[in-house]
Amino acid sequence: MSGIGRASVLIGAGTLVSRVTGLLRSIVLVAAIGAAASADAFNVANQLPNSIYMIVSTGILTAVIVPQIVMASRAQDGGQAFISKLFTLGTVILLAVTALAVVAAPLLVNLYASGLPGSQGFSPEQLELATTFAYWCLPQIFFYGLYAIVGETLNARRIFGPFTWAPIVNNIVSIAGFTLFIVLFGGGQKPVASMTPAMTTLIGASATLGIVLQAVVLLLFWRRTRLALHADFRWRGMGLGLIGRLAGWTFLMVLVGQLAAIVQTNVFATASAVHEPGQTIAGNAGLIFILPYSIIALSIGTPYFTQLSEHVSAGRHAEVPRDISTSVRVTALLIVLSTAALAAAAVPVSRVFTTSSDQAVDAALVLGAYLVGLVPIGILFTVQRTFYAYNDTRTPFFFTLVQAAIAAGLAAAALALPPEIRAAGVALGQSVSILVQVILATILLRRKVGALRVRVWMLSLARFVAAAIPAGAAGWLTFELLGGVDGWTASSVVLGALGTVVIGGVTAVVYFALLALLRTPELAPVGTLLRRFLPTR
User: Fold this and answer.
1) Considering the entire predicted model, what is its pTM?
2) Which of 39, 69, 148, 281 shows the greatest Cβ crowding within 10 Å of its Cβ?
């Protein structure tokens, strides 16, 4: 457990710094070009490499590579031959996909931003600007893929830190580039017609250069694996049949998720077309929403995933339910706190990523809708990756298919809402779909693994929620006492951040005090993890 704890803290600390610098990156971008039409065009373009990369790579790497590398490491050469073949194959695929994506840039932009049938999406000028940005951003696909292959290999060999800390370089480079933009061209809202080629070049090149350096920095840590890579095109005999079968289901799973994302993005585009909260507002609300998930679920769940893979590979199946239960309960304790704190501080934290208090209120509504799904997605992280540890990617495809269908259907239904709350409707639909997904996934996992101690999870969750409700109320009361929407916490970016810290701090103090009164057993492992962050450790 101490090894898991140290790995969790290392990942958590790196993720925290990475996400905080990522938030700063978004703040500087909003300061440079605003949060309206031009920003929506850039965010759609910058989303494209992430979306394509997820379809062809992320799910496959998560579901297949770690378990396969763990098994290959048992070979006499420590997995060196397998990993060389894997890197060669991955590089060829990534280069081909990147080239095709760049050629198809105009088609991809239209797919994501032209609106659903019967609705108006981006204007022709906005589509043209997004396409220009896409030509700069789509080469990121190759470097995202390289970063992921190297990082997952490091994780599989229990070298957890570099994969988490490398994105900080990307954020710093982007912040520097966006800051230079403000120096050269000034900040504030930039209408689409005002974006010159020099402006789009600086924004696009800064975003892509950050991803390139992120991958390069991670490669510097490869020596710690003690593996010597070489190009190896002899792919016969490396288990491509098994990898292909596993990856095929995962490919379909990620694909259906992206199809739902296309529907959602097009609905955002219809709101952007009439100057209401669209892609940028929703994207920044999503960044706030995903922050606790990234820090908490990834830091606790990633080491457990490697351990689960080792247990399954060694046939120690009796240890799996205990690991699942511990991971879910410890994760949920902190995720529930995050939900309460962000709900109480929704307006101040949204003000950090907007240009006015009115925009902050709009963004807070979107954030609140996303927060409904924060606890479910935190639990889903562990549940879904347990299937991967068993080399089962077929079952996750089916419960993800259900989630994607619900999310897409509810996003399309959000077109009936007024434009000013349409983005919030899409976010709420996403949360509802995740809740259904995690319930279905847990039922299916119980059939596969046996008893999962779900009653223990639910009792712990009930205890956490019982403490979170008054804690969140105390945080909201603090927000109102500080002036509410018209107070200083919503008056500027800096004061919004300060207000978020104050409100979140009050919420946390009340939450932990109540959990201590309830003698919550999960406080002990969480306290151990938190103490590891202190300098004295």
Assistant:
1) 0.75
2) 281
